[in-house]
Amino acid sequence: MPDARLTRIACVQMRPSIGDVTANVDRSVDFITRAADAGANVVVLPELANTGYVFETRAEAFALAEAIPSGPTTARWMALAQARQVYIVAGITERDGDSLYNSAVVLGPDGYIGTFRKMHLWNAENLFFEPGNLGFPVFHTPIGRIGVAICYDGWFPETFRLQALQGADLVCVPTNWVPIPGQAEGQPAMANVLLMAAAHSNSLYIAAADRVGIERGQPFEGRSLIVAHTGWPVAGPASRDGEEIVMADVDLGAARRQRNWNAFNQVLRDRRTDVYGEMLGSGLPRGWY
């Protein structure tokens, strides 16, 4: 019999085409369906999976953006989540009035759950998007508490610490990693190193879905992976250039049960909140540790 504690997570590493929303969403639906057929409970798609990433102007981004959850892309993913009884975390170009956001939508068997807006904008994203204004929400679901980060958010320790302090079991990371200068042949991707450290130092699972290919001259890194609360990968890293699905069965509850590392140390409890603010000045409510 399958272990009822296990959640099967799938990270889709795909190659969106800039501006071709219909084809991109069709391809994402195919990947989600394949993951669901393989028993996935949670499917993570890359950053801006519906539109592509390298915009030339804000007007181009605005023309491709959609409202959440009423837009056609979210509606299609939501119908699939309901039909296949899966949770989907997917990067999407969001329009809210005259504002644009690099966002991720969180969907489940019962429909729309919530939205995360990228907090830390990378490079030319600052020309097109507003910085995220929804903070670091943690979404409570029957399978566990799910947080979200997008790409460059992963370079900030606060991203994962604030979600861990709110009780996150899993942080899903839609991303479009690019090569980091100075990386020697055979070395792991810098993003992989950062996520492994974040998973270990916060005792939570992290599932990152990157894109591949070259878009308007910009290469992408691939290397999608799923990291356990121990800091070690349980699936991936994937290749640098191939479309694929990275999948792992994980016990999300282990992140909480095994947070006590020994008789003396518990990674969240041991924080010196007499020296720095318990919630890092965020104003978020006290967490679950």
Q: What this model shows, in words?
A:
The chain is α/β, with parallel strands linked by helices and 289 residues long. The chain has a single domain, classed as Carbon-nitrogen hydrolase (Nitrilase/N-carbamoyl-D-aminoacid amidohydrolase), CATH 3.60.110. It contains 7 helices and 14 strands. The strands form 3 sheets. The chain has a 6-stranded mixed sheet. The protein has a 6-stranded mixed sheet with strand order 6-7-8-9-12-13, with helices on one face. Strands 10-11 form a two-stranded antiparallel ribbon. Helix 1 (21-37) packs parallel to helix 3 (72-84). It starts with 5 loop residues before the first strand and ends in a 32-residue tail after the last helix. The mean pLDDT is 95.
Tally of helical segments: 7
Task: List segments where confidence is low: pLDDT < 50 over at least 5 consecutive residues.
Answer: none
Please count the beta strands (DSSP E, at least 2 residues each): 14
The percentage of residues in β strands lies in: 25-35%
What is the fold named in CATH at topology level?
Nitrilase/N-carbamoyl-D-aminoacid amidohydrolase
The CATH architecture assignment turns out to be: 4-Layer Sandwich
> Could you give the distance between the termini?
32 Å
The main pleated sheet reads as: 6 strands, mixed
Structural class: alpha/beta
Output the helix-strand order: EHEHHEEEHEEHEHEEEEEEH
* Total individual domains: 1
Helix content: 10-25%
Q: Kindly report the oligomeric state of this protein.
A: single chain
Shape: globular
For the record, the CATH class is Alpha Beta
User: What strand line-up does the widest sheet have?
Assistant: 5-4-3-2-1-14
**Nearest-angstrom radius of gyration?**
18 Å
Question: Kindly state the mean pLDDT as a whole number?
Answer: 95
CATH superfamily membership, which one? Carbon-nitrogen hydrolase
